[in-house]
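Inverse folding, one chain.
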Protein backbone atom coordinates (compact mmCIF):
# COMPACT_ATOMS: atom_id res chain seq x y z
CA UNK A 1 0.00 0.00 0.00
CA UNK A 2 2.71 2.27 1.03
CA UNK A 3 4.53 1.68 -2.23
CA UNK A 4 1.32 2.24 -4.15
CA UNK A 5 0.75 5.53 -2.43
CA UNK A 6 4.22 6.61 -3.33
CA UNK A 7 3.71 5.50 -6.91
CA UNK A 8 0.42 7.30 -7.07
CA UNK A 9 1.95 10.44 -5.71
CA UNK A 10 4.78 10.16 -8.24
CA UNK A 11 2.18 9.60 -10.91
CA UNK A 12 0.29 12.66 -9.82
CA UNK A 13 3.44 14.71 -9.68
CA UNK A 14 4.26 13.60 -13.21
CA UNK A 15 0.76 14.33 -14.31
CA UNK A 16 0.75 17.75 -12.81
CA UNK A 17 4.14 18.55 -14.35
CA UNK A 18 3.11 17.36 -17.78
CA UNK A 19 -0.23 19.07 -17.62
CA UNK A 20 1.54 22.25 -16.68
CA UNK A 21 3.60 21.80 -19.82
CA UNK A 22 0.61 21.09 -21.95
CA UNK A 23 -1.21 24.16 -20.78
CA UNK A 24 1.77 26.44 -20.76
CA UNK A 25 0.68 29.53 -22.54
CA UNK A 26 2.68 32.70 -22.83
CA UNK A 27 1.34 35.43 -20.60
CA UNK A 28 -1.16 37.78 -22.04
CA UNK A 29 1.45 40.57 -22.01
CA UNK A 30 3.74 38.48 -24.24
CA UNK A 31 0.93 37.91 -26.71
CA UNK A 32 -0.06 41.56 -26.74
CA UNK A 33 3.56 42.53 -27.27
CA UNK A 34 3.57 40.80 -30.67
CA UNK A 35 0.19 41.98 -31.82
CA UNK A 36 0.59 43.36 -35.32
CA UNK A 37 4.20 42.23 -35.52
CA UNK A 38 5.78 39.58 -37.68
CA UNK A 39 8.02 36.63 -36.81
CA UNK A 40 11.43 37.52 -35.39
CA UNK A 41 10.52 41.15 -34.88
CA UNK A 42 11.88 42.54 -31.60
CA UNK A 43 9.40 42.91 -28.81
CA UNK A 44 9.19 43.66 -25.14
CA UNK A 45 6.85 43.01 -22.29
CA UNK A 46 6.72 43.05 -18.56
CA UNK A 47 6.65 40.18 -16.13
CA UNK A 48 6.92 40.12 -12.37
CA UNK A 49 10.65 40.82 -12.39
CA UNK A 50 10.66 43.62 -14.85
CA UNK A 51 10.78 44.27 -18.53
CA UNK A 52 11.85 41.50 -20.85
CA UNK A 53 13.03 41.94 -24.39
CA UNK A 54 12.88 39.28 -27.03
CA UNK A 55 11.61 38.37 -30.46
CA UNK A 56 8.18 37.37 -31.66
CA UNK A 57 7.58 33.74 -32.57
CA UNK A 58 4.66 31.34 -32.73
CA UNK A 59 6.27 28.37 -30.94
CA UNK A 60 3.63 28.05 -28.22
CA UNK A 61 0.99 27.94 -30.95
CA UNK A 62 0.23 31.62 -30.72
CA UNK A 63 2.31 34.57 -31.76
CA UNK A 64 3.98 35.94 -28.66
CA UNK A 65 7.11 37.54 -27.38
CA UNK A 66 9.83 35.05 -26.38
CA UNK A 67 12.41 36.60 -24.08
CA UNK A 68 16.03 36.43 -25.17
CA UNK A 69 17.46 35.33 -21.85
CA UNK A 70 18.50 31.68 -21.91
CA UNK A 71 15.84 29.24 -20.82
CA UNK A 72 13.38 31.79 -19.60
CA UNK A 73 10.14 30.07 -18.77
CA UNK A 74 6.93 31.93 -18.52
CA UNK A 75 5.68 32.38 -15.05
CA UNK A 76 2.71 30.25 -14.20
CA UNK A 77 1.16 32.83 -12.02
CA UNK A 78 0.37 35.81 -14.10
CA UNK A 79 0.01 39.21 -12.62
CA UNK A 80 -3.53 40.38 -12.55
CA UNK A 81 -4.18 42.14 -15.83
CA UNK A 82 -2.58 45.50 -15.63
CA UNK A 83 -4.96 48.29 -14.86
CA UNK A 84 -4.15 50.12 -18.00
CA UNK A 85 -6.37 52.94 -18.95
CA UNK A 86 -6.46 51.96 -22.57
CA UNK A 87 -9.61 50.03 -22.10
CA UNK A 88 -12.71 51.75 -23.24
CA UNK A 89 -14.10 51.48 -19.79
CA UNK A 90 -13.75 54.91 -18.28
CA UNK A 91 -14.35 53.62 -14.80
CA UNK A 92 -11.30 51.40 -14.84
CA UNK A 93 -9.09 54.01 -16.39
CA UNK A 94 -9.94 56.59 -13.80
CA UNK A 95 -9.52 54.42 -10.79
CA UNK A 96 -6.29 52.86 -11.93
CA UNK A 97 -2.87 54.08 -11.06
CA UNK A 98 0.17 53.62 -13.23
CA UNK A 99 2.49 50.99 -11.81
CA UNK A 100 6.16 51.67 -12.11
CA UNK A 101 8.02 49.01 -14.03
CA UNK A 102 11.69 48.25 -13.97
CA UNK A 103 13.68 48.01 -17.15
CA UNK A 104 16.51 45.53 -16.95
CA UNK A 105 17.63 46.03 -20.49
CA UNK A 106 20.20 48.72 -19.69
CA UNK A 107 22.51 49.52 -16.81
CA UNK A 108 24.46 52.43 -15.39
CA UNK A 109 25.40 54.18 -12.19
CA UNK A 110 22.33 56.37 -11.76
CA UNK A 111 18.74 55.32 -11.25
CA UNK A 112 16.07 57.19 -13.16
CA UNK A 113 12.32 57.12 -13.48
CA UNK A 114 10.75 57.93 -16.81
CA UNK A 115 7.06 58.80 -16.92
CA UNK A 116 5.29 59.11 -20.24
CA UNK A 117 1.82 59.74 -21.56
CA UNK A 118 1.28 59.71 -25.28
CA UNK A 119 -1.59 59.69 -27.68
CA UNK A 120 -1.03 57.02 -28.75
CA UNK A 121 2.09 54.86 -28.72
CA UNK A 122 5.77 55.32 -28.00
CA UNK A 123 9.08 53.59 -27.48
CA UNK A 124 11.90 55.14 -25.45
CA UNK A 125 15.63 54.52 -25.72
CA UNK A 126 18.73 55.52 -23.79
CA UNK A 127 20.93 56.08 -26.82
CA UNK A 128 20.04 52.95 -28.80
CA UNK A 129 19.13 50.73 -25.83
CA UNK A 130 15.43 50.17 -25.54
CA UNK A 131 14.10 51.25 -22.14
CA UNK A 132 10.42 50.68 -22.69
CA UNK A 133 7.90 50.19 -25.39
CA UNK A 134 4.31 51.24 -24.80
CA UNK A 135 2.64 48.16 -23.32
CA UNK A 136 -0.46 48.77 -25.37
CA UNK A 137 -0.07 47.92 -29.02
CA UNK A 138 -0.12 50.70 -31.58
CA UNK A 139 -3.03 48.88 -33.18
CA UNK A 140 -5.20 49.56 -30.16
CA UNK A 141 -7.55 52.43 -30.79
CA UNK A 142 -8.08 54.87 -27.95
CA UNK A 143 -4.88 53.91 -26.20
CA UNK A 144 -4.36 56.60 -23.59
CA UNK A 145 -2.35 54.69 -21.02
CA UNK A 146 0.56 56.25 -19.24
CA UNK A 147 3.78 54.40 -18.50
CA UNK A 148 6.20 54.67 -15.63
CA UNK A 149 9.52 52.84 -15.72
CA UNK A 150 12.70 52.94 -13.68
CA UNK A 151 16.04 52.17 -15.24
CA UNK A 152 19.73 52.61 -14.66
CA UNK A 153 21.96 54.69 -16.86
CA UNK A 154 24.67 57.33 -16.76
CA UNK A 155 24.87 61.09 -17.17
CA UNK A 156 24.71 62.72 -19.58
CA UNK A 157 21.58 60.82 -20.43
CA UNK A 158 20.52 60.75 -24.06
CA UNK A 159 16.87 59.82 -24.42
CA UNK A 160 15.27 59.09 -27.76
CA UNK A 161 11.57 58.66 -28.39
CA UNK A 162 9.62 57.20 -31.27
CA UNK A 163 6.11 58.67 -31.04
CA UNK A 164 3.24 57.33 -33.09
CA UNK A 165 -0.23 58.65 -33.41
CA UNK A 166 -2.71 55.87 -34.11
CA UNK A 167 -3.56 55.45 -37.75
CA UNK A 168 -5.27 52.49 -39.33
CA UNK A 169 -3.06 52.66 -42.39
CA UNK A 170 -1.03 55.11 -44.42
CA UNK A 171 -4.08 57.29 -45.07
CA UNK A 172 -3.45 58.61 -41.56
CA UNK A 173 -7.14 58.07 -40.78
CA UNK A 174 -8.78 56.18 -37.96
CA UNK A 175 -12.27 54.63 -37.74
CA UNK A 176 -12.16 54.15 -41.51
CA UNK A 177 -15.60 53.53 -42.96
CA UNK A 178 -17.31 54.35 -39.69
CA UNK A 179 -19.41 57.41 -39.02
CA UNK A 180 -16.58 58.94 -37.04
CA UNK A 181 -13.84 58.43 -39.66
CA UNK A 182 -11.27 61.07 -38.80
CA UNK A 183 -7.66 62.20 -38.80
CA UNK A 184 -6.20 61.25 -35.44
CA UNK A 185 -4.10 63.65 -33.50
CA UNK A 186 -1.01 63.07 -31.39
CA UNK A 187 0.41 64.46 -28.18
CA UNK A 188 3.24 63.51 -25.84
CA UNK A 189 4.41 64.48 -22.39
CA UNK A 190 7.22 63.02 -20.30
CA UNK A 191 9.34 63.71 -17.28
CA UNK A 192 12.51 62.13 -15.93
CA UNK A 193 13.22 61.90 -12.19
CA UNK A 194 16.65 61.25 -10.72
CA UNK A 195 15.82 58.62 -8.10
CA UNK A 196 18.74 59.67 -5.87
CA UNK A 197 17.59 63.24 -5.42
CA UNK A 198 13.96 62.40 -6.22
CA UNK A 199 13.89 65.53 -8.36
CA UNK A 200 12.49 65.92 -11.84
CA UNK A 201 15.59 66.63 -13.93
CA UNK A 202 14.13 66.77 -17.41
CA UNK A 203 10.75 67.36 -19.00
CA UNK A 204 9.27 67.43 -22.46
CA UNK A 205 9.25 70.98 -23.83
CA UNK A 206 10.21 72.91 -26.92
CA UNK A 207 13.89 72.39 -26.23
CA UNK A 208 13.54 68.81 -27.45
CA UNK A 209 14.53 68.24 -31.05
CA UNK A 210 12.05 66.38 -33.26
CA UNK A 211 11.76 65.07 -36.78
CA UNK A 212 8.59 63.96 -38.58
CA UNK A 213 8.98 60.64 -40.41
CA UNK A 214 5.36 59.94 -41.35
CA UNK A 215 2.85 62.54 -42.46
CA UNK A 216 -0.65 61.62 -43.64
CA UNK A 217 -2.93 62.53 -45.15
CA UNK A 218 -1.24 65.38 -46.99
CA UNK A 219 -4.67 66.70 -47.85
CA UNK A 220 -7.16 67.04 -45.01
CA UNK A 221 -10.12 66.42 -47.31
CA UNK A 222 -9.06 62.74 -47.26
CA UNK A 223 -11.12 62.36 -44.11
CA UNK A 224 -14.30 62.96 -46.11
CA UNK A 225 -13.42 60.34 -48.68
CA UNK A 226 -15.92 57.48 -48.86
CA UNK A 227 -13.25 54.90 -49.69
CA UNK A 228 -9.92 56.37 -48.64
CA UNK A 229 -6.94 54.69 -50.35
CA UNK A 230 -3.49 55.40 -49.00
CA UNK A 231 -1.32 57.04 -51.62
CA UNK A 232 -4.29 57.86 -53.87
CA UNK A 233 -5.68 61.37 -54.11
CA UNK A 234 -6.74 62.91 -51.77
CA UNK A 235 -5.04 60.52 -49.34
CA UNK A 236 -1.39 60.87 -50.30
CA UNK A 237 1.15 60.48 -47.55
CA UNK A 238 4.82 61.19 -47.01
CA UNK A 239 7.32 58.96 -45.26
CA UNK A 240 10.92 59.81 -44.50
CA UNK A 241 13.58 57.31 -43.51
CA UNK A 242 14.81 57.47 -39.95
CA UNK A 243 18.32 58.93 -40.11
CA UNK A 244 20.94 56.29 -39.44
CA UNK A 245 22.37 56.71 -35.95
CA UNK A 246 19.78 59.25 -34.86
CA UNK A 247 19.75 57.64 -31.43
CA UNK A 248 23.49 58.11 -30.92
CA UNK A 249 24.65 60.83 -28.55
CA UNK A 250 26.90 62.38 -31.18
CA UNK A 251 24.19 62.57 -33.84
CA UNK A 252 23.97 66.11 -35.20
CA UNK A 253 20.34 67.14 -34.75
CA UNK A 254 20.95 70.79 -35.58
CA UNK A 255 18.76 70.48 -38.67
CA UNK A 256 15.87 69.05 -36.61
CA UNK A 257 13.12 71.35 -35.54
CA UNK A 258 12.41 72.18 -31.93
CA UNK A 259 9.40 70.37 -30.53
CA UNK A 260 6.19 72.35 -30.54
CA UNK A 261 4.36 72.92 -27.27
CA UNK A 262 0.63 72.29 -27.63
CA UNK A 263 -2.03 73.43 -25.21
CA UNK A 264 -3.91 70.98 -23.05
CA UNK A 265 -7.02 72.12 -24.85
CA UNK A 266 -5.75 71.03 -28.25
CA UNK A 267 -4.29 67.69 -27.08
CA UNK A 268 -7.08 66.83 -24.62
CA UNK A 269 -5.00 64.43 -22.52
CA UNK A 270 -7.07 61.68 -20.97
CA UNK A 271 -6.90 58.18 -19.54
CA UNK A 272 -3.63 57.53 -17.75
CA UNK A 273 -2.53 61.18 -17.99
CA UNK A 274 -4.06 61.94 -14.61
CA UNK A 275 -2.26 59.05 -12.93
CA UNK A 276 0.99 60.93 -13.05
CA UNK A 277 1.94 63.90 -10.96
CA UNK A 278 3.33 66.09 -13.73
CA UNK A 279 5.86 68.80 -13.09
CA UNK A 280 4.39 72.17 -14.09
CA UNK A 281 7.34 72.51 -16.48
CA UNK A 282 6.45 69.36 -18.42
CA UNK A 283 4.70 70.38 -21.63
CA UNK A 284 2.54 68.51 -24.10
CA UNK A 285 4.60 68.44 -27.25
CA UNK A 286 4.51 67.09 -30.78
CA UNK A 287 5.71 68.44 -34.07
CA UNK A 288 3.83 71.57 -35.12
CA UNK A 289 1.04 69.67 -36.87
CA UNK A 290 -0.78 67.65 -34.26
CA UNK A 291 -3.15 66.11 -36.80
CA UNK A 292 -1.17 65.25 -39.90
CA UNK A 293 2.22 64.32 -38.43
CA UNK A 294 1.78 60.69 -37.42
CA UNK A 295 5.23 59.43 -36.53
CA UNK A 296 7.69 61.75 -34.85
CA UNK A 297 11.21 61.09 -33.54
CA UNK A 298 12.32 63.23 -30.59
CA UNK A 299 15.64 63.57 -28.78
CA UNK A 300 16.79 65.08 -25.50
CA UNK A 301 20.18 65.26 -23.77
CA UNK A 302 20.08 65.47 -19.99
CA UNK A 303 23.07 66.80 -18.09
CA UNK A 304 23.97 65.84 -14.56
CA UNK A 305 22.16 68.50 -12.50
CA UNK A 306 24.95 68.41 -9.92
CA UNK A 307 27.38 69.63 -12.51
CA UNK A 308 25.05 72.47 -13.35
CA UNK A 309 25.41 74.07 -9.94
CA UNK A 310 27.11 77.46 -10.23
CA UNK A 311 26.73 77.43 -13.95
CA UNK A 312 24.09 78.84 -16.19
CA UNK A 313 21.73 77.22 -18.63
CA UNK A 314 24.26 76.76 -20.93
CA UNK A 315 27.27 77.24 -19.08
CA UNK A 316 27.70 73.66 -18.40
CA UNK A 317 28.45 74.66 -21.97
CA UNK A 318 28.06 71.37 -23.66
CA UNK A 319 28.23 71.86 -27.36
CA UNK A 320 24.71 70.71 -28.06
CA UNK A 321 23.23 73.18 -25.59
CA UNK A 322 25.30 76.13 -26.68
CA UNK A 323 24.99 75.41 -30.35
CA UNK A 324 21.23 75.19 -29.92
CA UNK A 325 21.23 78.94 -29.46
CA UNK A 326 23.98 79.83 -31.94
CA UNK A 327 22.39 77.50 -34.49
CA UNK A 328 19.77 80.07 -35.36
CA UNK A 329 22.50 82.01 -37.09
CA UNK A 330 24.09 79.54 -39.50
CA UNK A 331 23.09 81.88 -42.30
CA UNK A 332 25.37 84.50 -40.72
CA UNK A 333 28.22 81.99 -40.89
CA UNK A 334 28.01 81.42 -37.15
CA UNK A 335 29.33 77.97 -36.25
CA UNK A 336 30.25 76.23 -33.04
CA UNK A 337 32.95 73.71 -32.21
CA UNK A 338 34.38 72.45 -28.96
CA UNK A 339 37.72 71.92 -27.26
CA UNK A 340 38.48 70.65 -23.75
CA UNK A 341 38.15 74.05 -22.17
CA UNK A 342 36.15 76.14 -24.56
CA UNK A 343 33.19 76.36 -26.87
CA UNK A 344 34.59 78.02 -29.98
CA UNK A 345 32.30 80.24 -31.99
CA UNK A 346 33.24 81.39 -35.46
CA UNK A 347 31.49 84.19 -37.29
CA UNK A 348 32.01 86.67 -40.12
CA UNK A 349 31.03 89.61 -37.93
CA UNK A 350 28.20 90.79 -40.20
CA UNK A 351 24.79 90.28 -38.58
CA UNK A 352 21.37 90.27 -40.23
CA UNK A 353 19.17 93.28 -39.83
CA UNK A 354 19.31 97.01 -40.47
CA UNK A 355 22.76 97.56 -39.13
CA UNK A 356 24.19 101.07 -38.97
CA UNK A 357 20.78 102.65 -39.63
CA UNK A 358 19.93 105.37 -37.12
CA UNK A 359 23.50 106.36 -36.21
CA UNK A 360 23.68 110.13 -35.67
CA UNK A 361 27.26 110.40 -34.54
CA UNK A 362 29.23 108.53 -37.20
CA UNK A 363 32.98 107.95 -37.28
CA UNK A 364 32.83 107.04 -41.01
CA UNK A 365 33.75 103.43 -40.19
CA UNK A 366 31.69 100.75 -41.94
CA UNK A 367 30.95 97.05 -41.29
CA UNK A 368 33.52 94.82 -43.00
CA UNK A 369 33.50 91.02 -42.72
CA UNK A 370 35.86 89.82 -40.00
CA UNK A 371 37.76 86.59 -39.77
CA UNK A 372 36.54 85.28 -36.40
CA UNK A 373 37.48 81.68 -37.10
CA UNK A 374 40.18 79.09 -36.49
CA UNK A 375 42.60 80.39 -33.86
CA UNK A 376 40.87 83.77 -34.09
CA UNK A 377 37.46 82.38 -33.08
CA UNK A 378 35.51 83.47 -30.01
CA UNK A 379 36.07 81.33 -26.93
CA UNK A 380 33.47 80.73 -24.22
CA UNK A 381 34.70 78.88 -21.18
CA UNK A 382 32.94 75.59 -20.53
CA UNK A 383 33.52 75.97 -16.84
CA UNK A 384 32.58 79.44 -15.62
CA UNK A 385 33.73 80.19 -12.08
CA UNK A 386 32.38 82.83 -9.70
CA UNK A 387 34.93 85.51 -8.84
CA UNK A 388 35.44 87.45 -5.62
CA UNK A 389 36.59 90.52 -7.59
CA UNK A 390 33.52 91.25 -9.71
CA UNK A 391 35.41 93.64 -12.01
CA UNK A 392 33.17 96.54 -12.96
CA UNK A 393 32.59 97.57 -16.56
CA UNK A 394 32.62 101.22 -15.55
CA UNK A 395 36.32 101.07 -14.73
CA UNK A 396 37.56 98.13 -16.82
CA UNK A 397 37.41 96.73 -20.33
CA UNK A 398 37.27 99.94 -22.39
CA UNK A 399 39.03 97.91 -25.07
CA UNK A 400 37.81 94.84 -26.81
CA UNK A 401 34.69 92.80 -26.22
CA UNK A 402 33.01 91.92 -22.93
CA UNK A 403 30.53 89.48 -24.46
CA UNK A 404 29.47 87.63 -27.56
CA UNK A 405 25.92 87.90 -28.90
CA UNK A 406 24.41 84.64 -30.13
CA UNK A 407 24.44 86.01 -33.71
CA UNK A 408 28.26 85.94 -33.54
CA UNK A 409 28.69 89.70 -32.99
CA UNK A 410 30.86 90.96 -30.11
CA UNK A 411 29.42 93.18 -27.40
CA UNK A 412 31.66 95.98 -26.16
CA UNK A 413 31.48 98.03 -22.98
CA UNK A 414 28.37 100.29 -22.99
CA UNK A 415 30.81 103.09 -22.23
CA UNK A 416 33.03 104.13 -25.12
CA UNK A 417 36.70 104.81 -24.55
CA UNK A 418 35.97 108.36 -23.45
CA UNK A 419 33.71 107.00 -20.74
CA UNK A 420 30.55 108.19 -22.51
CA UNK A 421 27.41 106.10 -22.84
CA UNK A 422 27.69 105.21 -26.54
CA UNK A 423 23.93 104.84 -26.85
CA UNK A 424 23.09 108.24 -25.34
CA UNK A 425 25.61 110.10 -27.49
CA UNK A 426 23.94 108.78 -30.66
CA UNK A 427 26.79 106.53 -31.82
CA UNK A 428 24.60 103.43 -32.11
CA UNK A 429 22.17 102.06 -34.66
CA UNK A 430 18.72 100.67 -33.88
CA UNK A 431 20.24 97.32 -32.87
CA UNK A 432 22.67 98.98 -30.45
CA UNK A 433 25.77 98.58 -32.63
CA UNK A 434 28.22 100.38 -34.90
CA UNK A 435 31.61 99.81 -36.50
CA UNK A 436 34.93 100.32 -34.75
CA UNK A 437 38.36 101.37 -36.01
CA UNK A 438 38.97 98.11 -37.79
CA UNK A 439 35.58 98.51 -39.50
CA UNK A 440 34.50 95.79 -37.11
CA UNK A 441 30.80 95.82 -36.30
CA UNK A 442 29.94 95.35 -32.62
CA UNK A 443 27.16 96.05 -30.13
CA UNK A 444 27.43 98.34 -27.11
CA UNK A 445 24.06 97.41 -25.59
CA UNK A 446 22.18 94.14 -25.15
CA UNK A 447 21.04 92.72 -28.51
CA UNK A 448 17.46 92.20 -27.31
CA UNK A 449 16.24 92.19 -30.92
CA UNK A 450 17.61 88.61 -31.00
CA UNK A 451 14.88 87.50 -28.58
CA UNK A 452 12.46 87.57 -31.49
CA UNK A 453 14.63 84.93 -33.18
CA UNK A 454 15.75 82.65 -30.34
CA UNK A 455 12.71 83.18 -28.09
CA UNK A 456 12.51 84.77 -24.67
CA UNK A 457 13.56 81.58 -22.97
CA UNK A 458 17.08 81.55 -24.40
CA UNK A 459 20.14 83.69 -23.86
CA UNK A 460 20.85 86.44 -26.37
CA UNK A 461 24.54 86.53 -25.51
CA UNK A 462 27.28 85.10 -23.35
CA UNK A 463 29.38 87.46 -21.30
CA UNK A 464 33.05 86.50 -21.61
CA UNK A 465 33.12 85.24 -18.01
CA UNK A 466 31.00 82.37 -19.38
CA UNK A 467 27.61 83.35 -17.93
CA UNK A 468 24.59 83.87 -20.12
CA UNK A 469 22.82 87.17 -20.77
CA UNK A 470 19.04 86.93 -21.14
CA UNK A 471 16.73 89.69 -22.38
CA UNK A 472 13.91 91.49 -20.60
CA UNK A 473 12.11 88.23 -19.85
CA UNK A 474 12.76 85.18 -17.73
CA UNK A 475 12.89 81.79 -19.46
CA UNK A 476 9.45 81.02 -17.95
CA UNK A 477 7.96 83.97 -19.87
CA UNK A 478 7.61 86.39 -16.95
CA UNK A 479 9.06 89.88 -17.03
CA UNK A 480 12.30 90.24 -15.10
CA UNK A 481 11.89 91.50 -11.54
CA UNK A 482 14.85 93.89 -11.55
CA UNK A 483 14.77 94.17 -7.77
CA UNK A 484 16.06 90.60 -7.60
CA UNK A 485 19.25 91.37 -9.55
CA UNK A 486 22.54 91.71 -7.68
CA UNK A 487 25.16 94.43 -8.21
CA UNK A 488 26.47 92.58 -11.26
CA UNK A 489 22.95 92.69 -12.77
CA UNK A 490 22.49 88.95 -12.53
CA UNK A 491 20.77 86.39 -10.35
CA UNK A 492 19.96 82.72 -10.02
CA UNK A 493 16.55 81.07 -9.86
CA UNK A 494 14.46 78.13 -11.02
CA UNK A 495 17.48 75.92 -11.47
CA UNK A 496 18.77 77.92 -14.42
CA UNK A 497 21.95 78.86 -12.63
CA UNK A 498 23.53 82.29 -12.55
CA UNK A 499 22.66 84.57 -15.46
CA UNK A 500 22.51 88.27 -16.31
CA UNK A 501 19.60 90.25 -17.71
CA UNK A 502 19.45 93.07 -20.23
CA UNK A 503 18.05 96.42 -19.09
CA UNK A 504 16.48 99.30 -21.04
CA UNK A 505 18.73 101.82 -19.30
CA UNK A 506 22.43 101.79 -18.45
CA UNK A 507 24.22 99.39 -17.98
CA UNK A 508 22.07 97.63 -20.66
CA UNK A 509 24.15 94.47 -20.10
CA UNK A 510 25.91 93.32 -16.92
CA UNK A 511 27.37 95.96 -14.58
CA UNK A 512 30.29 93.81 -13.48
CA UNK A 513 31.72 90.35 -13.92
CA UNK A 514 30.17 87.71 -11.67
CA UNK A 515 32.67 85.22 -13.03
CA UNK A 516 36.43 85.07 -13.33
CA UNK A 517 38.03 86.58 -16.42
CA UNK A 518 41.65 86.75 -17.49
CA UNK A 519 42.75 90.28 -18.17
CA UNK A 520 45.56 91.85 -20.15
CA UNK A 521 46.71 95.47 -20.05
CA UNK A 522 46.58 97.52 -23.20
CA UNK A 523 49.98 98.62 -24.50
CA UNK A 524 49.64 102.14 -23.10
CA UNK A 525 48.43 100.88 -19.76
CA UNK A 526 45.28 102.99 -19.95
CA UNK A 527 42.84 100.17 -19.70
CA UNK A 528 42.59 96.42 -19.73
CA UNK A 529 40.79 93.90 -21.85
CA UNK A 530 39.58 90.35 -21.48
CA UNK A 531 41.75 87.67 -23.02
CA UNK A 532 41.70 85.48 -24.89
CA UNK A 533 39.55 87.08 -27.53
CA UNK A 534 39.83 87.43 -31.30
CA UNK A 535 41.87 90.21 -32.76
CA UNK A 536 41.02 92.56 -35.56
CA UNK A 537 43.33 94.54 -37.80
CA UNK A 538 42.35 97.85 -39.37
CA UNK A 539 42.20 97.89 -43.14
CA UNK A 540 42.52 101.64 -43.37
CA UNK A 541 43.55 104.40 -41.03
CA UNK A 542 40.93 105.47 -38.53
CA UNK A 543 38.64 108.26 -39.57
CA UNK A 544 37.20 111.43 -38.12
CA UNK A 545 33.56 111.89 -37.15
CA UNK A 546 31.39 113.24 -39.95
CA UNK A 547 29.45 115.90 -38.07
CA UNK A 548 25.77 116.21 -38.86
CA UNK A 549 25.53 112.93 -40.79
CA UNK A 550 22.75 110.46 -40.07
CA UNK A 551 22.80 106.96 -41.53
CA UNK A 552 19.54 106.08 -43.27
CA UNK A 553 20.19 102.85 -45.17
CA UNK A 554 22.46 99.83 -45.46
CA UNK A 555 22.57 96.98 -47.97
CA UNK A 556 24.74 93.90 -48.38
CA UNK A 557 24.61 91.07 -50.92
CA UNK A 558 24.35 87.41 -49.89
CA UNK A 559 28.07 86.78 -50.41
CA UNK A 560 28.92 89.79 -48.23
CA UNK A 561 31.16 91.25 -50.92
CA UNK A 562 29.08 94.27 -52.00
CA UNK A 563 27.89 96.87 -49.51
CA UNK A 564 26.25 100.26 -49.59
CA UNK A 565 25.63 102.76 -46.84
CA UNK A 566 23.31 105.72 -47.34
CA UNK A 567 23.33 108.84 -45.18
CA UNK A 568 21.90 112.32 -44.95
CA UNK A 569 24.15 115.34 -44.53
CA UNK A 570 22.86 118.92 -44.48
CA UNK A 571 19.61 117.86 -46.13
CA UNK A 572 21.25 115.91 -48.94
CA UNK A 573 21.47 112.16 -49.44
CA UNK A 574 24.73 110.33 -50.20
CA UNK A 575 25.73 106.71 -50.68
CA UNK A 576 29.07 105.14 -49.92
CA UNK A 577 29.77 101.90 -51.80
CA UNK A 578 32.40 99.29 -51.02
CA UNK A 579 33.02 95.95 -52.59
CA UNK A 580 35.53 93.11 -52.62
CA UNK A 581 37.11 91.96 -55.89
CA UNK A 582 40.19 89.75 -56.03
CA UNK A 583 41.31 90.38 -52.45
CA UNK A 584 40.92 94.12 -52.81
CA UNK A 585 38.28 96.28 -51.16
CA UNK A 586 37.31 99.20 -53.35
CA UNK A 587 35.55 102.09 -51.59
CA UNK A 588 33.61 104.71 -53.56
CA UNK A 589 33.30 107.63 -51.14
CA UNK A 590 31.22 110.81 -51.65
CA UNK A 591 33.19 114.06 -51.42
CA UNK A 592 29.93 115.94 -50.73
CA UNK A 593 30.53 118.25 -53.70
CA UNK A 594 28.94 116.06 -56.34
CA UNK A 595 32.10 113.99 -56.91
CA UNK A 596 33.32 110.68 -55.48
CA UNK A 597 36.76 109.37 -54.72
CA UNK A 598 37.85 105.76 -54.99
CA UNK A 599 40.13 104.14 -52.40
CA UNK A 600 41.46 100.58 -52.64
CA UNK A 601 42.80 98.42 -49.82
CA UNK A 602 44.28 94.94 -49.84
CA UNK A 603 41.96 92.66 -47.85
CA UNK A 604 43.22 91.71 -44.41
CA UNK A 605 44.35 88.09 -44.28
CA UNK A 606 45.60 87.79 -40.74
CA UNK A 607 43.96 89.56 -37.86
CA UNK A 608 46.98 89.51 -35.66
CA UNK A 609 47.76 92.91 -34.32
CA UNK A 610 45.33 95.38 -32.98
CA UNK A 611 42.55 95.22 -30.51
CA UNK A 612 40.28 97.46 -32.34
CA UNK A 613 38.10 99.25 -30.02
CA UNK A 614 38.75 102.92 -29.78
CA UNK A 615 36.70 105.79 -31.13
ZN1 LIG B 1 32.19 100.83 -30.39
ZN1 LIG C 1 16.54 85.62 -14.51
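Residues assigned per position:
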Amino acid sequence: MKINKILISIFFICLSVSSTHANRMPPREAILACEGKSMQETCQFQDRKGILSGVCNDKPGIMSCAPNRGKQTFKEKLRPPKQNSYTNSKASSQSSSTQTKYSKSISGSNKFKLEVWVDNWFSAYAEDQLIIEDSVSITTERSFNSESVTFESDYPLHLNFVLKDFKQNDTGLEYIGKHNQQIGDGGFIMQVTDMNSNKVIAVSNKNMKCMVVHKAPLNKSCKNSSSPQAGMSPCEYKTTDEPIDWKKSNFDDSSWKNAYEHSKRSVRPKGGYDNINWSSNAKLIWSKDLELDNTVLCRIRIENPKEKINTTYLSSNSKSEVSSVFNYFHSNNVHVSESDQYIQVSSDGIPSGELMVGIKSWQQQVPLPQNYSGDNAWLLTKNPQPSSKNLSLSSNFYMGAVGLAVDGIPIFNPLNNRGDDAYLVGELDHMGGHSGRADDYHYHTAPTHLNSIVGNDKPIAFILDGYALYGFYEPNGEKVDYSTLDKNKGHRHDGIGYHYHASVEYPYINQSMYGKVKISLDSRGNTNFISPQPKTKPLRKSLEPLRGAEITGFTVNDEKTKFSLTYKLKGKGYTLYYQLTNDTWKFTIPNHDGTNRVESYKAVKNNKFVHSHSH
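Confidence is low (pLDDT under 50) at residues 1-23, 70-95, 307-317, 607-612. The CA atoms of residues 86 and 142 lie 6 Å apart.
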